[in-house]
């Protein structure tokens, strides 16, 4: 039975992915900073009969905390085969109004946090002599486009996308591992619209700019993540799949 570690796994897309993998019979470890939300998510995971589940409270910005989290997970669930780097932080702010602390806080969570969890997993794979693992990183289309007011997140996600492709090559050779990314579009029930749109009219504008005419769901992201990590996709490596209803392609919205 395979084990997956999902950071930021207590809510939104992270929780949806955890529920999907657990339903499919995987052992699931979720991690995050908020103990209360982790325990709420654990209640839902434990209601699913297949697989085992644990929650670990830690901060992805702290490398040693990431190491200790993985140690707890492997002690309880055995070798960890897969990782979803889902923990994120973002806010809208004109770049000239951005403080150095605001810049650093997002970079530390998104880019450094992704590196920290990925690196400790690589060390784990090396110790366990584990091959055929899978890593899925969550990015955004402004990693290769642009996004006014989200400079730190855009820069961090661009770094994550490059790290994805770099390790797809390096760790493909070293571990037979696959490293891929998902770029979600506007997704309902995640809080993203609340953070990135200050008015209900802005939310509706974003919805109209999606060619399929709606926001995506966390469950659709979870289905894609499971498919990408599954044995069906053993040859998928170094790719970024946009699941956004065609949103990022819409250069001239109606």
Automatic annotation (TrEMBL):
Keyword Zinc attributed: no
Keyword list, A-Z: NADP, Oxidoreductase
Residues spanning the membrane: none
Entry's Gene Ontology molecular function annotations: 2,4-dienoyl-CoA reductase (NADPH) activity
Enzyme class: oxidoreductase
Pfam families reported for this sequence: adh_short_C2 (PF13561)
Oxidoreductase in keyword set: yes
EC number from the UniProt entry: 1.3.1.34
NCBIfam families xrefs: PRK07677.1
PANTHER family membership: PEROXISOMAL 2,4-DIENOYL-COA REDUCTASE (PTHR43296), PEROXISOMAL 2,4-DIENOYL-COA REDUCTASE [(3E)-ENOYL-COA-PRODUCING] (PTHR43296:SF2)
Protein name (Swiss-Prot/TrEMBL): 2,4-dienoyl-CoA reductase
Gene: fadH
């Amino acid at each position: 039975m395979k084990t997956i570690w999902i950071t930021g796994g207590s809510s939104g897309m992270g929780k949806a992915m955890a529920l999907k993998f657990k339903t499919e019979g995987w052992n699931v470890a979720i991690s995050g900073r908020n103990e209360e939300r982790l325990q709420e998510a654990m209640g839902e995971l434990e209601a699913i009969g297949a697989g085992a589940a644990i929650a670990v409270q830690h901060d992805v910005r702290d490398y040693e905390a990431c190491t200790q989290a993985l140690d707890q997970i492997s002690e309880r669930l055995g070798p960890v085969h897969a990782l979803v780097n889902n923990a994120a932080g973002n806010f809208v702010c004109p770049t000239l109004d951005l403080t150095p602390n605001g810049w650093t806080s997002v970079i530390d969570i998104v880019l450094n946090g992704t590196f920290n969890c990925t690196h400790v997993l690589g060390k784990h794979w090396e110790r366990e002599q584990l091959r055929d693992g899978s890593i899925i990183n969550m990015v955004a289309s402004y990693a290769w486009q642009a996004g006014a007011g989200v400079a730190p997140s855009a820069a961090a996600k661009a770094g994550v996308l490059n790290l994805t492709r770099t390790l797809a090559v390096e760790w493909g050779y070293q571990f037979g591992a696959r490293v891929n990314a998902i770029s979600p579009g506007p997704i309902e029930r995640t809080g993203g619209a609340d953070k990135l749109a200050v008015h209900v009219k802005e939310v509706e504008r974003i919805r109209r700019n999606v060619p399929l005419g709606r926001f995506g769901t966390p469950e659709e992201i979870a289905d894609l993540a499971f498919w990408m990590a599954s044995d069906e996709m053993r040859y998928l490596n170094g790719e970024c799949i946009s699941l956004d209803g065609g949103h990022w392609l819409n250069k001239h919205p109606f």
